[in-house]
Amino acid sequence: QVQFVESGGGLVQPGGSLRLSCAASGSIFSITFMGWYRQCPGKERELVSRLTSDGSPNYADSVKGRFTISRDNANKNMVYLQMDSLEPEDTAVYYCYADLKRAPRDRNDYRYWGQGTQVTVSS
Question: 13: which residues sit within 8 A by CB, 6+ positions away?
């Protein structure tokens, strides 16, 4: 099995910053993508940002220039999401996820989710 440890959510005023972290552990052979989705009440879950296996970042248009995803230098299965210039529209539950292979024989990736962390941007 695969486990996630997420941290860093909370309440912040508009224009403020938060940093989310997520560490994956367990039966992991390789990670293809790792990052975050978010979900607002009544809306579908949307991709916020992810890192590819070679370290290339992808971002949703709504967060480009404000959010930065990075990987921990010591633990390649740990990622961070630095969120700056936060807006009320960024309020959501943020879910860490990973598309990964659990063994060399796996032909396809498996997707795993963290438990989610609440981010609230409000004055």
Answer: 121, 122, 123
